[in-house]
Structures
1.
Amino acid sequence: MIEVEGLTKFYGPYPAIRDVSFRVEEGDVVAFLGPNGAGKTTTMRILTSYTAPTSGKASIAGFDVWDDSMNSRRHIGYLPETSPLYNDLTVRQHLTYGARLCGYPGDKVEGRVDDVIDLCNLTDRADALIHKLSKGYRQRVGLGMAIVHDPAVVILDEPTIGLDPKQVVETRRLIRELGKEHTVMLSTHILPEAQSIAQRVIIINEGSIVAEDTPDNLTAQIRRARSLRVRVKDTGSTVAAKLRDLAGVSGVRRTAEAGDGACYEVEMPVDGRDMRAEVASFIVGNNWGLLEMTPIEMTLEDVFLRLTTEEEGAA
Amino acid sequence: MVRKVASIVCLAFLAIGLAYVAFYLVASTQNADEMAWNPGWLPWITFPMLIIGAAATYVLWFPGCWHITLKELRTYFASPIAYAVMVAIFGISNLIFWWTLKGMMTQPGQNEIAMTTMTTCFLLVLITPLLTMRLIAEEKRSGTYEILVTRPIHDLQMVVGKFMGAMGVMLVIIAVTFLQPLMAELGGNPDWGPIWSAYVGLIGWTAAFVAIGVFASALTASQIAAAAIAWFMTIMMWLLSALRSVDPGKAISKLGEYMSPNAVMEEFARGTIDTTRLIYVASLTIFFLFAAWMTLFSGRSR
């Protein structure tokens, strides 16, 4: 449904994305994961014909986004990052406008708009002016705008950004719902979000694709890479060396944290074995005085670090 | 089915109206020497046909443009802009109309009622940028430009749609200033020939000013800058009329005579519909709409 090949975009001398290639099959829900400034929005803007790529090709439903953009745009529904809307229209007028601009058959527009209002839970605000809506409602109207003309591909740029937790859950449910009928591509910088919605995750960093996998495989990789933070009373220098010798531990690093005793970061084995109990009893056995032990959840930045260094190692 | 019939009927209306205009222009030039060439009752049927035909053709044959126009009209009349602009125009132009009437009572002149349209035209120069500045600049600033251009809408459709939206508001304003000659008709016997031609000129120049405003709005994301650019261009054009007195008869004076809105309006207000000047005004409009289109197009090219 979406085919991207060797896409590169320069803003002046600065590359926003470099040689990005990927494919999204029909019916897939794909998350585009990366930190701010990684090139997610740029890629999406090229896919929606908002900006032109410096080089490379992209096509939606078989139509090139540059040479045949009228047709490719017909098959796209797009929610930009901040969900920009016309403040002086009502929700219903806004969605009708969206459908009409996409050439949705005139006699069916009304029914379709009603359906979308239902689907996006906007029934109680259908005739309210946009500028009176809360952020959550605005986001849902934006989603409605993206699907009102029933496009094959829905592209959502950070659909849950700036929403409260309840609205986030609501929006994710809605996106999963959309995934049943449309090919969905969404961008996010929140890992659990990608996990909970998408069937496939594309990780992008500094303009290049770093990894592309199912969320399960990626999380397995992350779980493997988990580490423990350990605080012991003993400030002696032998602790780190002895911990390193413990079978399975792949690395120990002393961290300069304030507080009692000494703090260490103990990396768990590569095979993903849970070693918390072993580490705890080892410390207790050595009588170092275990004060604290916390598993460190990998943040997205750690995943990037790991993935990028791994790639470099392989090359 | 109804729609198909309507689409064909509106084309027929438009064709009949245009045919009559062509006939009228030819006939009036051939009869230029005869002071009183009377077209009779025919224009009362053909001109409304032309207007209805043109409007219906726009709505039925260019739905992409029309939906944008409809949305722009909705925005204008839902916000204070349109009303503020209207009040300003009516207030000032009616005051000037009153002065003109007072002047006519003491010193009866020729076609003075038509001449008030020149003042109206200058007011339009001042007010059009206020109306057009938001058309594209606001969308760029608020980000809605992104949800507009990612829909299957041609840049040209967008330009024309927005142009027609602002033009709609301007036509309402012009229609209400038309109350002035109507009032004159109630209390006297004004010469309607120059009044009609003056309004043709007024509508033509409004189209040109709005096109310039759309172009200025496409250039920038700042509404203030858009208004400033539009004012610069239109007021400079207005001031071109000063060239007329530089070297009478020479090319430089002709420049002022043919290019500045007030010099051209003067011709129209005298009762002559000059094809050269009509074509000039129309080509200004088309040129600036084209420039606006190119501006948007180059904004997203490689």
2.
Amino acid sequence: MDVKYINPFIQGLLDVVSMLGMTSMTRTGLAKKAYLQTENEVNIIIGLTGEVKGNIVFSMPEATAKNIASAMMAGVPVEKLDLIPKSALCELANMIAGNSASKLEGLGLRFNVTPPTLITGKNLLALISQVETLVINFTGDQGPLEMNVALEM
Amino acid sequence: MAVDDSPVTRKMLKKALEPEGFVIVAEAGNGRDAVAAYSQANPDVITMDVTMPIMDGLEAAAAIKKLNPSQKIIMLSAMGDKDIVAEAQSLGISDFCTKPFKPDEIIGKILKVLAEG
Amino acid sequence: MSSTTYIVPFIKAVASVFKDMLGIVVTRGEPVDEGEGFESQGFAVIVGFTGGWRGRFFLDMPPATAIKVAGILTGEEYDSATHEEVLLCGAEIGNVVCGNAITAVNDAYPGLGIRLTPPSVFVGEGFSMFNVRLSSYSVMMQTDAGPLKINVAVEEGKR
């Protein structure tokens, strides 16, 4: 996977969270994995089809999820991840995918995005692609978060 | 030669074909590797999956047909909609098989294609 | 389109793929409106789709069923559903079921042009799925290898 195709996703995430007021978010790492094995309780999956085909899973601990949802809802504290915070997190994933898509269109690549699905649970093992998964780590005031990108290109 | 991005499918093809006396001379997980392995492998027939990363089956089939117009290729796919089948036919593919394939079905198609000479 | 329109092609595809690929007979239940989400039985294969229909398909089963199914495909025995080949078998079945279902739909409604994402597989205990603003229908199906739940969550109204 060419680095120039990953950057739009990294930048997409940073641009979107920044626009939502979460300006402290930075990228802290990049690694490759065969599977996504996560202790993170909150995972949001978005699929891509078209010239770029694959899956992206945003993965974070419950605490980060609550903090991000809260930031998206004008700072209202989030005690429990119920319907409204979950919708907010799905919306975030959607925005990041959309933002990354526009950047990739600039590189001449077009793709379509599925609606997001949020998966909550403990000790999940996920195979999100039959090609390797790129794990991009971010952290900010809200806590750590991972973007797992598995694209066939 | 068996070309499919799913190792499970390649294993299933082996399971179906080896007992019948076929030898899988080469395997590839995407179109690009298939084209690269092609000349060395010199297969009698290629089973080629359509949806694969890096280079899909239709593109790889076109490339291989350019190298050798008489190469026999059977396209394999879970997606068998009319557009895909039509495109495969326009490339001069020998046959199309949808997944799931029954062992008899794929063996029958391979034998038929080989007999066509 | 009626709300159960979306799930019917997948019910048919599961029944025929399980029979052809695995020799397993599937008896089908009735579609149930799932609301926003459901809890997994422990092993979930997920495939997304875009184009004329936008949404996601879930094939959900207990880990023991996944192990049995993988065993039929490869002829091997597995002690855990987290084994790589069990995950890959799950992915392959999800792929083939959706490929078949969507092919039938694309052929029946020319111009829909539905395309699939690669499958993903999630394994764990007590995890649940939430689909925001999607109409979600489930069908519980019974097989000799164990129970299967299929769920189709689609975005209504858009084309």
